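Hi everyone,

Forwarding the result from last night's run.
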Amino acid sequence: MSSKNRNTFSTSFGFVLAAAGSAVGLGNIWRFPYLAAKDGGGLFLVMYLVLAVTFGFALLTTEVAIGRKTKQSPLTAYRELHKKWGWLGKVACIIPMLILPYYCVIGGWVLKYALVFLTGKGAAAAGDGYFTSFITAPYSPIVFTVIFLFLSCFIIYRGVKKGIEALSKILMPVLVVLVIGISVFALTMSRTADDGTLRTGLDGLKIFVIPDLTGITANKFMITLMDAMGQLFYSLSVAMGIMIAYGSYVPNKSNLVKSINRIEIFDTAVAILAGVMIIPTVFVFMGKEGIGASGPGLMFVAMPKIFSQMGFIGNIIGAVFFVMVFFAALTSSISILEAVVSSFMDEFKISRRRSVVIEGVLALVLGVIVCLGYNKLYFELALPNGATAQILDVMDYISNNILMPVVSIGTCILVGWIIKPKSMLDEITRNGESFARKNLYVFMVKFLAPVLLIILFLKSLGVLTF
């Protein structure tokens, strides 16, 4: 696809909403609150905020700048920067190809629960074994996966302006309103526990925002630091090729510094609101120990049980909650798909329609395999980090724990030491913008970010333990 004929976002605000929509996904909603609760509440929050404006900012800025500078997708952008580094683009393209199938499977689960609550049957979803019986069913999970994947493909087929940007301008404001609404409701809740103590949403908020330094050690500090850094990959959608693809659609006249700052603020605010929304709610109904549920257990088991305890209003709140999660999942899914589709278009010079069909079929095949991983193809495998996994977990581990750190480390080496940070700084300030964090950016890309990423990578492989 020629850069002259390349689609672009119509406005900088459209780019910010699309990028924020990509960043605000399932990782923010079901992973961020769990890690915050596990790692000392406010301690994790402080580390996350510091890393967001340093480490995360450097990676996000670099990827967006690479995209706009090259006007290429992740598969071809690295080759455009340096001919010998084209391999990095291939790895960056493999990541979203691995993530999309299982993300659509989980998106199908969310769609299923949204429909259950919208039809007034939320109480059934709170039953013991409901989630397990659903994901192990032979056909139902596949049907919902197909529906979710089709919606994602349809939006991407419509293109940058009519698909990605148009949807983001509608869904993101609605998503923010829903998140804020549920957060306010969570803070106003209260309930008397079985032991007679009164639990309030504000007490749950304290767990989230006030640092718990009880028993803090160097090892615990490092674990929290690594968790916060790992979360940034999910929160900012970096190392997946997404921001390179989206950056390639940013007009040259746009103020890149301002746009990146807005994405940081938007994403961080929603991540924090996700914690405000979930941690106080779980605390009120399940106590501090209940906050330990993570991933599917938090979203599809703990939350429905909580909604069932709210009475009639619980079905309404549950419907609003799962619709909100569905919107978040969909905006992230389309960004993952776009990273692959744009790569196919640039590398093989084929149409958007054909690229969507090819990747849609690939994602469908792998998505069905992921669904079958809970019944006919079920197995258990011990991962290097000590976790027990089946097909979805294996794909997640390879993409998130191995390939994403490799791409980020390679990007830092390429930009920091091969083509030099000045190449990115020139792009960032193309229109004479003031770049206040210029020195911080150079330091992070050349020195600190690569070191932190290598530590994270070695920890993921089980070489380092804390």
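Strands lie at 190-192, 198-200, 381-382, 388-389.

Cheers,
N.
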